[in-house]
Write a structure and sequence with these properties.
Blueprint: H1 26-43, E1 55-60, H2 64-79, E2 83-88, H3 91-99, E3 105-111, H4 116-121, E4 126-128, E5 133-143, E6 164-166, H5 173-185, E7 192-194, H6 198-210, E8 217-221, H7 225-228, E9 231-233, E10 245-252, H8 255-258, H9 260-268, H10 273-286, H11 292-301, H12 303-312
Parallel strand pairs: 1-2, 1-3, 6-7
Antiparallel strand pairs: 3-10, 4-10, 5-8, 5-9, 5-10
InterPro entries: ABC_Gly_betaine_transp_sub-bd (IPR007210), TAT_signal (IPR006311)
GO biological process, one term: glycine betaine transport
Main location: membrane
């Protein structure tokens, strides 16, 4: 998926190079795509998108709550004659791209806490549509066999976790909240907070569980990991991670006038916990890297899922 991908014709980054070269891992794949996407965003101007009759540029980033719905809407819009160009980048450049109109829209601004900094910075530079998911939460999570139940027990058990907290991307809202709220609130400054990538975090989680070793990771609901592993979210008595949030599409200024049908469809979009978790599992985890399109098609092949999607397109 060398992003940008035009008209959903996608070339996997991991396949680029000499024949027989070792494929990129998901982590390496996403890092290379993010670099390409950021470079493309930096080189793109609004003047490059003169024909807006059926062309759309959608931003997304490397978390399943972004990957799954982005591929879903790429599929649904393509079925209705739109040419969808998916631009992969870190969260910050995606917000900047929509605010600067080099991107038309993205699907998952977390409000009010996780993406507060971006929403405040660009509040006059893009429009928010209606929330499509309303019970998203940020969490610090451990395997169920770990003998603690609350974040305020981590400090006294730091050695149990090798003095490490395993996070995700440095630019993620969850990372910012963890570093600037949770860690100081609970006196965890002496622990090593690892902010690498979601892929690296999930790899460490999987390895630790296979060995029944303690690990604490930053995670969020909904995520397919909760269906795959026996996990427990640690209590947050200080409320440092915030409370339930909404996921909201954000669109460039003028988008609703240029694409009134698409804006209306996105406003109709809504998923329950079970529907969103199932979409993430089928389209991302089960399908595997480079096959998200196929995963979305399999999800839509289920009659009740297709009926749900059709209900958004009035």
């Amino acid at each position: 998926m060398l992003y940008s991908s035009r008209n959903r014709s996608v070339v996997p980054c991991g396949s680029v190079g000499p024949r027989g070269a070792r494929p990129l891992s998901r982590r390496g794949f996403l890092k290379s795509c993010a670099f390409a996407g950021a470079a493309l965003l930096g080189a793109t101007t609004l003047g490059g998108c003169a024909d807006r009759s059926n062309k759309l540029r959608m931003g997304w980033w490397a978390q399943t709550d972004s990957i799954a719905p982005s591929y879903l809407w790429s599929q649904l819009l393509s079925e209705r004659g739109y040419e969808v160009e998916m631009i992969f980048a870190d969260q910050g450049p995606v917000f900047e791209g929509v605010a600067g109109a080099s991107l038309d829209f993205a699907l998952d601004a977390w409000s009010p806490l996780t993406h507060k900094a971006y929403l405040e910075k660009y509040q006059d530079d893009f429009d928010l549509l209606d929330p499509w998911y309303r019970t998203a939460t940020l969490n610090w999570t451990v395997p169920s066999y770990v003998p603690i139940d609350s974040i305020d027990q981590i400090a006294e058990n730091a050695g149990l976790f090798g003095n490490r907290i395993v996070g995700i991307e440095p630019g993620a809202g969850l990372t910012d909240t963890s570093r600037n709220q949770v860690i100081p609130d609970y006196g965890l400054e002496d622990m090593d907070f690892v902010d690498a990538s979601t892929t690296a975090m999930l790899s460490e989680l999987d390895r630790s569980i296979s060995r029944e070793e303690p690990i604490v990771v930053t995670l969020w609901h909904p995520h397919w990991a909760y269906a795959t592993y026996d996990l427990k979210d640690l209590a947050d008595p200080k409320g440092s991670l915030g409370f339930a949030e909404s996921l909201i599409p954000f669109v460039r200024l003028g988008f609703t006038q240029d694409y009134p049908d698409v804006a209306r469809w996105l406003n109709n979009f809504e998923l329950t916990d079970a529907q969103f978790s199932d979409l993430q599992k089928v389209a991302v985890e089960d399908a595997g890297i480079g096959h998200e399109d196929e995963g979305v098609r399999r999800w839509l092949d289920v009659a009740e899922n297709r009926a749900l999607a059709d209900s958004w397109i009035d």
